[in-house]
Specification:
Layout (H helix, E strand, L loop, with lengths): L1 H29 L27 E4 L2 H12 L2 E7 L5 E8 L2 E7 L18 E5 L3 H11 L2 E8 L4 E7 L5 E7 L5 H31 L2
Parallel strand pairs: 1-4, 5-8
Antiparallel strand pairs: 2-3, 3-4, 6-7, 7-8
Length: about 210
């Protein structure tokens, strides 16, 4: 009796194993192949905020290394790098002043790209803020800047000077010194404009006097 019971148990176990194998094979056939894990591409910031702010000035200059040297000595820019073209000549430079990048490119007549002196001047003045405008004025003059206006307290609250760099580009450098009200600003503007006109009239008269001597 025990033999029959064992035989039945073995037969039952064998049937169960066979069924399990059949189910496993069926499941394997119907199972969908596992998807390959997609390789994540690095996310690119379309505004490139790590390197630049919303606007970056680019100046065309005759001599990129010389201009870069002037901007570091005169205004405190840090040189990020100068890139040479296939001919070995500098074709691009980048400098940084706090959060602002300044780009430099070479003159190229074939690309209609000319510097300020080549076109007889510039309508653009670059305005930068510094901690100590009087100290920076001394640095700029020592570096070879042409003084257009020495440091002055302006009616809008900034103390500024105005210079042209060796390439002919104009720079107004300022330190924020006061915050006048609108009324105070208007009065200071009138006084400043009157003083400037008087100074201009004086210079014109002096020039006319020197001409009359000849």
């Amino acid at each position: 009796m025990a033999k029959k019971t064992k035989t039945k148990a073995r037969a039952k176990s064998a049937r169960m194993s066979a069924k399990t194998m059949v189910k496993a094979k069926a499941a394997k056939k119907t199972a969908k192949p596992a998807k390959k894990r997609a390789v994540r591409k690095p996310k690119i910031d379309p505004l490139n905020r790590k390197q630049y702010t919303s606007m970056t000035p680019m100046l065309t200059v005759k001599d990129i290394p010389r201009a870069a040297d002037f901007y570091t000595k005169a205004f405190g820019f840090k040189l990020r790098g100068i890139m040479n073209g296939p001919d070995g000549k500098p074709m691009h430079a980048e400098l940084k002043l706090r959060d602002t990048t300044l780009m430099l490119g070479p003159e190229s007549p074939e690309w209609q790209s000319f510097g300020a002196r080549s076109i007889g001047g510039t309508p653009v003045t670059l305005y930068i803020l510094v901690e100590n405008v009087d100290a920076v004025f001394k640095d700029a003059v020592a570096a070879g800047a042409q003084v257009l206006m020495p440091p002055n307290d302006m009616f809008w609250g900034d103390r500024c000077f105005n210079v042209a760099d060796p390439e002919g580009n104009k720079w107004m450098v300022a330190t924020h010194a006061a915050e006048p009200t609108e009324a105070q600003m208007t009065e200071a503007m009138k006084a400043q404009m009157a003083a400037m006109q008087a100074e201009q009239a004086k210079a014109t008269a002096a020039a006319a006097g020197s001409e009359s001597e000849y």
